[in-house]
Specification:
Elements (H helix, E strand, L loop, with lengths): L1 E4 L2 E4 L2 H8 L11 E4 L2 E4 H9 L8 H10 L3 E3 L13 H8 L7
Antiparallel strand pairs: 1-2, 3-4, 3-5
Amino acid sequence: MRCVIARFPFDLTRSGVLESMKGIKPEQLSGESVIIGRRTYPVKQVGQVLTRQDRRDFSAGEVLRAMTQLGFTCRELPQAAAPTRVRTPMQQASAMLGAPAAA
């Protein structure tokens, strides 16, 4: 499959990506990721290995798009959970009894 990453065309195949990533140790995940084989790699690491370019030269979106089209499972950044309001034991007991919540 032909794709453009950092304004350069690349002919990528699923087997070629698997071969390129063989023996590469995944870095610690901090954002978007791609599952290749049985390992989960950061998107920027995959892009750097495949294109041999500096990570600043391409976006994670470009690599995610290419890996998705090749059939790899990609994961976006996890959504941050909304902060929960901490209740005192008295407020918790009141809420359990059905009393109106105090502000």
